[in-house]
Amino acid sequence: MKILVPVKRVIDYNVKARVKPDHSGVDLNNVKMSINPFCEIAVEEAVRLKEAGKATEVVVVSIGVQQTQETLRTALAIGADRAILLQSDDDLEPLAVAKVLKAVIAEENPDMVIMGKQAIDGDNNATGQMLAALLDWPQATFASKLELVDGGAHVTREVDGGLQTVKVSLPAIVTTDLRLNEPRYASLPNIMKARSKPMATKAVGEYGLDLAPRLSVKSVTEPPKRTAGEIVESASELVEKLKTAGVLS
Length: 249
Ligand code: AMP
Description:
This protein has 249 residues and is α/β, with parallel strands linked by helices.
């Protein structure tokens, strides 16, 4: 069984995002970039399936700028077997990413795609769902547990009312939630080993797809500053303050 894991290079989750002075987007100049945390979880899950003898090959793929090679090397150091970089200088929208991934899937024929539920830069939470629709494959989103069963997968999802388990037949798209696993730290020997694992590079334009944007960004702004909180000594003091502020009567 072959697993394809699409991964995205995003602003590191520890970095405080700065908005560009012209409000056209987030300033990524000299900013630390990393593998999207949900994608890291997807790589970890695929590698665990391989280690458990249930998968035979884990292929990671990313669409992005040249430096995305580093993101792919991170995935290879976790344990993926090989990588594909589809070079693009444009930050593609989910529909365009889904179209490119569909083309990669036609070449690679994976039995399952495990990907992040969302990328923490745009927080779109859309690519996996769009890819499943384009392929007409079953999808199980927000996985917090994944088990392979005869010809399919049982996926447990965290929903508002509790846990829901769905069974999908393969091939399928699974998107990862935070509690699916805790990704390992890549060991130094594995980081070294990752340097010699195969990485194919291709220009995204080679697929001849319509990747033109459908969305336009009007303006990007910082969230409003939070005013300082106040610590109260007791519940009665809190009630008093809320009454004075007119929140309680
Ligand atoms: P999004 O819909 O943008 O929140 O992204 C959801 C998931 O789609 C990510 O966690 C990745 O697995 C995948 N994805 C999004 N953009 C890319 C990209 N440029 N290259 C590879 N995978 C991507």
